[in-house]
Amino acid sequence: MKRGVLCIFILIALASCRDDEVIRGPLQPFSLEWPAHFPPPPLRADNPLTEQGVVLGKKLFFDPILSSDRTQSCASCHHQPDGFTDRKNALSRGVLGQLGTRNSMPLFNLLLHNNGFFWDGRSVKLREQALLPIQDHLEMNENLPNVVSKLNDIRTYRLMFDAAFGNKEITSERIGLALEQYMYSLVSGDSKFDRVQRGLDTFSISEKKGQILFNTEFNPSSGIKGADCFHCHGDINFTNNEYLNNGLDSVFADKGRALVTGRVNDEGKFKVPSLRNVEVTGPYMHDGRMKTLEEVVEHYNSGIRFSSTLDPNMHTIRQGLQLTASEKRDLVNFLKTLTDQTYLNNPKYR
Ligand code: HEC
Ligand code: HEC
């Protein structure tokens, strides 16, 4: 009888020591689901994606322990159903309810971002970027030594850092590397647009007209209508990865890229965002000033504001694109073909 009780006690003790989240054994390369019609993924040789690293990064991303009062995780401002951005807030709110100055950014295909992170590009590497929201007073308002010590108190984390990095040491550098691995694993390449590219689907007449407008130069003398979007949003990831001024303001409340470079010439320039999943990533622009895609299209159609740093591709449309109501609808319908339900619902990302 006594022996039976002891056995049960040991079994319970063993069960409570089992950590389902910990992947044991040698490092396993992460199987990245990368679309065949994309250029090959520019993987980072100094931080190879592993199953152990990605799963640790995911746990960190969703864990409010990274914030000072344990109420806010990365996912609080980056929700998967919104393309990992924040539909609720035009400007982000931090742990203490503090209002930030910018709109949260979507997270996917970050491997293709070769020119910095944030609206102003102030982070060159994703692993460095990942540590900034933790320390930002307007966001998670925590410091790195505290985060390291909080994580060190948790056995599962010690085991997961061991599994991902070869020993139990938890450092802020490793936190950055794990978050980088997880964020690089988020891939979007299965929208209707992609399926049309691969010959698996066809556009409606309106979507096709929208695509042509999107990819056609504005040149009224040619007699062909064009909305000129492709100059900046034309690559496979719908961004040229540059910092440009798309004519939102003539006086800049937020100086954008110039805050990083110190050059007057960069005032009012912001990262050209990818338009993939744009249907769900609103509100739009660096300060979330526009609520709908219709408003965005109307901005390009008739709302461009002049300034000395306005992109030359915008000069051509200063008089307005002169799109008809149905052409504006076509453009919006094309943008909606970039919504990727596979990515938005991928259970591996949560
Ligand atoms: C309080 C809301 C908030 C929290 C919490 C937050 N973010 Fe963000 N995130 C933002 C905002 C706002 C921006 C744009 C900031 C800017 O440009 O200055 C951003 C930008 C980013 C970008 C840049 C994307 C790009 O395309 O350049 C990445 C990556 C990112 N966040 C990852 C994270 C990670 C990782 C965490 C957790 C450690 C996190 N965020 C926590 C609001 C938040
Ligand atoms: C000169 C380059 C340029 C051209 C041309 C251009 N854009 Fe943009 N676009 C940008 C930049 C830069 C931003 C971000 C601006 C900001 O937030 O300050 C942006 C933002 C957007 C956004 C908001 C995305 C988000 O996540 O907030 C949409 C939608 C958009 N553009 C669609 C279009 C469409 C449609 C066209 C063609 C009618 C177009 N763009 C033409 C540079 C350009």
Key words describing this protein structure:
mainly alpha; Cytochrome Bc1 Complex, Chain D, domain 2; 2 domains; two-stranded antiparallel sheet; 2 strands; 1% strand; binds heme C
3D architecture notes:
This protein is an all-alpha fold. It has two domains: 20-187, Cytochrome Bc1 Complex, Chain D, domain 2; 192-344, Cytochrome c-like domain (Cytochrome Bc1 Complex, Chain D, domain 2, Orthogonal Bundle), CATH 1.10.760.10. 36% of the residues lie in helices and 1% in strands. It has helices spanning 2-17, 51-61, 74-77, 126-129, 132-135, 144-152, 155-165, 172-184, 192-197, 205-215, 230-233, 258-261, 293-302, 312-315, 325-336, 341-344; strands spanning 243-244, 270-271. Strands 1-2 form a two-stranded antiparallel ribbon. The longest helix is centred in the first third of the chain and has 16 residues, at 2-17. Mean pLDDT is 93; it is low at 11-17.
Annotated CATH topology of the largest domain: Cytochrome Bc1 Complex, Chain D, domain 2
Rounded to the nearest angstrom, the distance between the terminal CA atoms is 45 Å
Question: How are helices and strands ordered from N to C?
Answer: HHHHHHHHHHHEHEHHHH
C-alpha-based Rg, rounded: 23 Å
Contiguous helical run count: 16
Supply the CATH class of the largest domain.
Answer: Mainly Alpha
Poorly predicted runs are: 11-17
CATH architecture annotation name of the largest domain: Orthogonal Bundle
Shape: globular
Helix content: 25-40%
The main pleated sheet reads as: 2 strands, antiparallel
Bound small molecules, by name, code or SMILES, are: heme C
